[in-house]
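Protocol step 4 of 6: record predicted structures for both targets in the notebook before any analysis. Target 1:
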Amino acid sequence: MAKKSEDKELTIEEAFLAVDEKIKALEEEDVTLEQSFKFFEEGMELLKYCNESIDKVEKKVQKIMQDGQTEDFE
C-alpha cells in the first residue's frame, strides 16, 4: 500500500504524480543504474497501488448501479 511520509494513504492523484516524478528522475542523464532500479521499483509499486485503488472504485460503482444486473465499467 502506498503511503505518504506521515503514514497516510496516498490518493490516486498523488500516486500518479509520484509515478510522474519517478519517470522524470529516470530521464535524467546522471542517474546511476542503482538509482534507476530503485525508481523503477518504486514506480511499479505506485502503479500497482493505483490499479488496486481503481479496481476498488469500479466495484463500488458496480454495486451502486446494481439493480439485479451490473454494467461493466469501461
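Target 2:
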Amino acid sequence: MAAIKKILCFCGSGLGTSFLMEMNAKKALKNLGITDVEVEHTTIDDIVPGAADLFICGADLLPNAEKAGKAIGMNNMVSMDEMTEKLKEAFGL
C-alpha cells in the first residue's frame, strides 16, 4: 500500500468543522509518533482523486470522499478518541 503523506480534512464549507478535524488529526498523528504527514483542511469541492492520500470527513460525506480515494468518515467529528483510532487503522498500527 502507498504511504500516506498528505491528508485532507473536509466539510461542506471548508471552514469550522474541517479545521477542527485538521487540528485533531495533527494532534493524533503526533501522539501516534507519525511524522512527515501534511494535514490540511478544505471544502468538499477540492475532493478529487490525487488531491491527497487520505481524506477525512463527517460520516455523511464519506461516499463523496471514497470516490476520490482512501477515506475516513467520522461519526463524531470532534472526538479525539475516534480520530486516533481511525488514523491508527489507516496507518496499519
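Step 5 preliminary note on target 2. The beta strands are 6-11, 38-43, 54-58, 71-74. Helices lie at 16-31, 62-68, 80-90.
Proceed to step 6 after PI sign-off.
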